[in-house]
UniProtKB/TrEMBL annotation:
GO terms for molecular function: carbohydrate derivative binding; glucose-6-phosphate isomerase activity; mannose-6-phosphate isomerase activity. The keyword Transcription regulation does not apply. Residues 19-171 form the SIS domain. The keyword rRNA-binding does not apply. PROSITE patterns: SIS. Belongs to the PGI/PMI family. Gene3D superfamilies: Glucose-6-phosphate isomerase like protein, domain 1. One of its GO terms (biological process) is carbohydrate derivative metabolic process. InterPro entries: Glu6P/Mann6P_isomerase_C, SIS_dom, SIS_dom_sf. This is Glucose-6-phosphate isomerase Pgi. Keywords: Isomerase.
Amino acid sequence: MLDDIKKFPDMCEKAYQPTEIDTKNIRNIVITGMGGSGIGGDLLKAHLRDKLDIPIIVNKNSNIPNFADQNTLFFVISYSGNTKETIKAYEQATKKDCKIKAITSNGKLKEKIRNPQNIIHQPPKNIQPRAALPHLYLPMLATLQKNFGLKQTNIHETKKILQEILEKNKPKTKKQKNQAKKLAIELKNTIPIIYSHTYLKPVAYRWKCQLNENSKTYATSNYYPELNHNEVEAMYKNNPQIKDLAVCIIKDNKPKKQTKKSINASKTVLKNAKKILTIETKGKKRLTKTLSTILIGDLTSLYLAILKKTNPSPVKNIQKIKRKTQE
């Protein structure tokens, strides 16, 4: 897992490759993927929510939206190419004559897609799907930016910051100067609850998933301002249910005034949890801020797994459930 995380900056640079596609008469975009293959859709939707004039729907289900038709750009994402729900969704999209573009490394999905031009990216094989995130997200982003006339990201600048983060948080760096190690120590023996806002919402969800899968730690996530209208009500003093909660707030390094106000207001009750940790984004551009915070989360989940003396790579419960659902 550490070797895969070390490749993160290079993967980002290699994966950010646009493909020419026909966007004529496209009225909506649907992205289908499960687990590690589906988070790219969440990131794409958050990144482009205020930039595109057509809706983006993330479908984490075997059944696709009823409105999908020949005017739908349909991204189908499966690292292995064998995800049961994703293949079924692909078959439905084919029957509805959607404009299908795929990202897959191999498997049944690749076999079913007869036109190779409909595969916009093939990730390298033998990577944990969740560790292959750049390959499952950035080809879509680059392609949409190019074909919808949006400004392209300078991925080389982003890579530079990602490399700096890796250097500062490498295993040999002592905990005093290692942000990911310090976070892992803080999260040990807690239930992490990850909060974020606006475009960082899927980043918080990624942290939650990596803590689940790598650290084998129960964690959950929520986002501002929504959590201020429900979840905070449970954060009252002496509530035994929150005594083990570690609230991790992921925030933009230059938050908007209203966002800053929402976060600060919530801290008046969040202080009743076991601890509050704040993680600020790094960089100036939205993509850099997103990817750099994801990398810190990936490293934190790895170091927490080490502290818990658990192997981060196997996902035994997930595989057990997959076997049972395929019987």
